[in-house]
Amino acid sequence: MAVTMVPPFIRTFKCIFMCLFVTFALACLISFSVLQSTVEEICKCPLSEKLSPPIDSSHLLGVIVPFRDRFEELLEFAPHMVKFLAEQHVSHKIYVINQVDQYRFNRASLINIGYKIATAEGCDYIAMHDVDLLPLNPQLSYRYPTAGLFHVASPEYHPRYHYNNFAGGILIIKKEDYKRVNGMSNKYWGWGLEDDEFFVRLKEASLDISRPTNLSTGIENTFRHVHDRVWRKRDMAKCFNQKEVTRRRDRQTGLQDVEYKIRSKHQLTVDGAAVTVINAELRCNRTLTPWCLCSEEKKKETSERRQGKAR
Ligand SMILES: *[C@@H]1O[C@H](CO)[C@@H](O)[C@H](O)[C@H]1NC(C)=O
Ligand SMILES: *[C@@H]1O[C@H](CO)[C@@H](O)[C@H](O)[C@H]1NC(C)=O
Fold it and tell me: Where does this polypeptide localize (predicted)?
């Protein structure tokens, strides 16, 4: 019988060895599980704190900033917006559409261009955003609007514009809704009225516009409006029949026919805030919208008046 043949010292040794092995295995198991749970705790805590609620990666916001010559405002805008949107956990890209041609400023056409670029790069909704209007109250939502549009720059809280049909400043719109109304009119060269015409487009398409209500802040502290320091006479002027035409709803032009050339594209970081700057050259059909340049007409007018006086 083999077992009884085994000398007793070997049996003792075997027993000690088994005991040691079991103890060692148990110790390993316990320390590993403790280690694992602490690792889990260490990993879980700061992550869950950082990500609650998690960044909404199901939507991507394109912030479209029509732009020209306002460099110092951009330096303030970019870091402010990146921080503001990060606090709301909104995934976003910022597009500064810089008009580099010789024509008067065309905010609407620049937004049409921004829309095309942003949606091509995966954005499923956009914020049409003035560079000189900074949101201050964190209650102002830049999240994907579940129903209709969201007019962030509500006339109730805007520092300057208080009429009910105001749709400018900051407007958040879904990709499909912007496309549905054929974007914005391309006929608005110079300042103003393009957002009023856009408001009519939205109304005609029966799109609901909601606005922030019941904010804890008022007219003075919901936004910061960086006031225009330079009076842009060239852009404020009205010439030819611009006044008559731009008072009416434009059923011809929009997103479909905006004519432009991208001269260059740059990735910029302002104090850590990433923005894409697009240098865009607009095309103007001088038969359709002669007021893309006013100065010539002004000269013509004054010379005609002089001639009239002379006659
Ligand atoms: C408006 O805000 C106040 C305090 O911030 C709150 O008590 C009230 O319920 C709010 N009303 C609505 C309609 O949300
Ligand atoms: C400019 O607009 C007019 C009037 O709509 C049109 O007949 C003409 O073909 C346009 N010119 C160009 C170069 O697109």
Answer: Membrane
C-alpha R_g of the chain: 31
Cα separation of 270 and 34, whole Å?
Answer: 45
Q: Where are the domains of the chain?
A: 56-300
Ligand 1, atom 12, lies closest to the CA of 214
β-strand 170-174 against 125-129: which pairing, if any?
Answer: antiparallel
Distance 180 CA to ligand 2 centre (A): 24
Provide the whole-model pTM: 0.77
Phi, psi of 231 (to 5 degrees): -80, 115
Q: State the distance from the centre of ligand 1 to the C-alpha of 155, rounded, in angstroms.
A: 19
Q: Which atom, in ligand 2's list, is nearest to the CA of 286?
A: 1
Residues 6+ apart with CB under 8 A from 273: 78, 79, 81, 82, 83, 94
CATH 3.90.226.10 holds for 56-300 = no
